[in-house]
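Q: What would this chain look like folded?
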Amino acid sequence: MNVMINAVRKAARGVQRDYGELASLQVSTKGPGDFVTAADKRCEKVLSGELAKARPGYGFLMEESGAVQGSDPDHRWIIDPIDGTANFMHAVPFFAISVALERAGEIVAGITYNPVSDEMFVAEKGQGAFLNNRRLRVAARSDIHDALLSCPLPHRGRNEHALSRAEIGAMQGKVIGLRHLGSATLELAYVAAGRLDGMWQRNLSAWDLAAGIILMREAGGFIADPDTDKNPLDTGNIVAANADLLPQIKRDLAAARKSLAA
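A: My prediction, written as C-alpha cells:
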C-alpha cells in the first residue's frame, strides 16, 4: 500500500499542475483535447515507472498503454491515470487517479485519489477501506425509496442510449434522486463512503472498476453484474450498493430491460 500511495502522490503533482492550466485552454481555438491526452500519458508514465521500480516483476494493465506482461505471472497493476477525462477537460473537479493490485486474478488493494479535493480512498483485502485515514462503511439505508443513486448517461457514439433511458425512467419513480457524476471509480468510492447509496454503470473497462471493487467490499458493500451472475470486472457492467439495496436495484433494472424488450 505504501508503494501505491507514493506512486499516486508523485503522479498527482503533475495532474494538479495540468488541471491548473485548463482554464486558459478552454478559450483557445484548438481546445483542451490534445492537452488532456498528454496529461493522461504523463500521469500513467509516472505511475508505471514508480510501481515498476518498486516491484520490477509485476505486469500492468493500463488505459493508455494497454497490457504489459511481467515476469511475475501472479501480480498485475491496473491503472487509470485520469478517470473522468471529460470532467478534467472542462475543469470540473470530479475525476480521479486509480491504481489497483491484482494477485492471481483477485483485486487485493486499490487507491482512488481525487487530486483536486485531496481525498484518497484506499482499501486492502482484509484491512478495511479508508478515506484519508478515516474508516469507511457503506450507507445503511434499506429502502430503495430513500436512496440516492448514480446512474449512466452514455455519451455520443455509445449504443446503449435506449437502455439507459429505460433504466433511468424506471428508477426515477423509485428513488429520492439520480446523479451522473462522470467518474465511475470515484462514484464507487462515494458509495463505499456512504455519500451515495448505490450506483450502476455499463460498458466500463477493468481500470474503471478495479480499485472501486475492493473499496466497496472492504467498506461492507456488494457488487454484481446487473444482467448476469458474472464478475463485473469481466463484463464491464456493475451495480454497487449495500446488501439490502442491491437486489432492489437489480430488480428494477431487470424490469426496465424487460419493458424495453417488449
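The chain has two domains: 2-135, 144-261.
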